[in-house]
Amino acid sequence: MSTWLLVSGDFTPYGGMDMANFALASYVARSGREPADVHLGAHQVSPELAACAGTVNVHHVPRPFGIHRLGEPMLRSTARRVQKQLASRDLCSLANGGNADLGDLNWVHYVHAAFDPPAVGLGNRLRVGRNHKRYVAEEQQSLVRARLVICNSNRTADDVVKLAGVARDRTRVIYYGIDALTFRRVDAAERDAARRMLGLAPARLVALFVGALGDRRKGFDTVFDAWRTLCGRSEWDVDLVVAGTGAELEAWKARSARELPEGRVRFLGFRRDMPAVFAACDLLIHPARYEAYGLAVHEALCRGLPALVSATAGIAERYPADLGQLLLQDPASATELTARLSAWREDAGITERVAEFAARLRARTWDHMAREIVELRGER
Question: Is the dihedral of CA 364, 320, 291, 195 positive or negative?
């Protein structure tokens, strides 16, 4: 029986790196000629994974007061303890970035050294700056000691080589997969139902922004500036919805009320029903200043939405040449974003070109991704 130790903050199917980790753990727990002995070191594990008695063993780590920074040292120490306990077995260990230094496989979803997050307010800037330095140091220590570093894009592989000092021949690029049924192409009936659920007008075009509003990494400030310009034009007939929360949410609501026409932007807050939110919309806007991959973009494309995304994002590597007009060369430029939004509005054929790309993306499932990771178990 093979034994796995997987260490991450969360193994839950709610998007981002949590969804990727959940998909890998699920695959390992149910694949193979005989059941694997799977150990999960985490703050949170989905009930459906935890319920796999006899196959999945959860080593729960507290996250005091819900604060990540307080739980991280406990996650690292738990990972080392469990790894020592399992050392006599045929063990493969996998951690994410700097969350544990296990010297085996390390799966990188985000490179802290690649982006220094801006923060609002002096106290917040000092706190974020201190945390960022610790994240970068822990990340580098874990990555340089890893047997192999799994990267979610070529962008990420370049970053771990240049910024963390990892040898190129110890990196492997494995793209994310998708749940092809959940993120199938939206039909008219599903679109209408999703719009009724969100209270959106049936005939209006709707653009979507998805991302945290706690700092400026995802680029909502760029979207806001572009939207203010566009809403000053009588011909602009597209509304904006925002899915996400964070420390700046209330400030953005207040600015929107002051500076934008009534009804042109709506804040949905945090959502766990993103497949339905995508179904209700016509376009995704994602001008992130740093994005190692961009799973929300991947999901939106699979639902059939054109997605404007930073050209430096990992997902952009997968865009075909005939969708190059959706790649933002300067994600901080509201002028460029405004021009590309106007061009999208006039491009009648873009939805069908996206549909062809989406079909290729849906052909690669989470199981395809997980299988490629599992195959690295014996590679040296």
Answer: negative
At residue 379, the pLDDT reads 81
Lowest mean pLDDT among 50-59, 107-116, 171-180, 247-256: 50-59
Question: Does 119 score more than 70 pLDDT?
Answer: no
Return the percent helix, strand and coil in the chain, to nearest 5: 45, 15, 35
- For residues 73 and 154, state if they share a domain: yes
User: Domain residues for 61?
Assistant: 3-177+365-374
What are the residues whose beta carbons fall under 8 Å from the beta carbon of 363, sequence distance 6 or more?
180
Domain membership flag for residue 19: yes
C-alpha dist (Å) from residue 82 to 55, 92, 150, 345:
16, 12, 22, 54
pLDDT at residue number 129: 62
Q: Are residues 202 and 127 in the same domain?
A: no
> 10 Å Cβ neighbour count for 225?
17
Burial 82-94 (b: 16+ CB within 10 A, else e): bbeebeeeebbbb
Compute the distance between CA of residue 147 and CA of residue 176 in angstroms, rounded to an integer.
21
CB-CB contact of 168 with 125 (8 Å): no
**What pLDDT was estimated at residue 124?**
55
Residues 87 and 231 in one domain: no
Mean pLDDT score, 45-72: 88
Question: Could you tell me if 160 and 194 lie in one domain?
Answer: no
- Split into its structural domains, the chain has a count of 2
Which CATH number goes with the domain that contains 226? 3.40.50.2000
* Residue closest to 335 by CA, chosen among 233, 227, 242: 227
Q: Are 104 and 3 in contact (CB under 8 A)?
A: no
Number of C-beta neighbours around residue 130 at 10 A: 11
Q: Assess whether 27 and 80 both reside in one domain.
A: yes
pTM for the model:
0.94
- Between CA 151 and CA 325 the distance in angstroms is 26
Question: Please, which pLDDT band fits residue 132 given cuts at 50, 70 and 90?
Answer: confident
Q: Looking at residue 67, what is its pLDDT?
A: 86
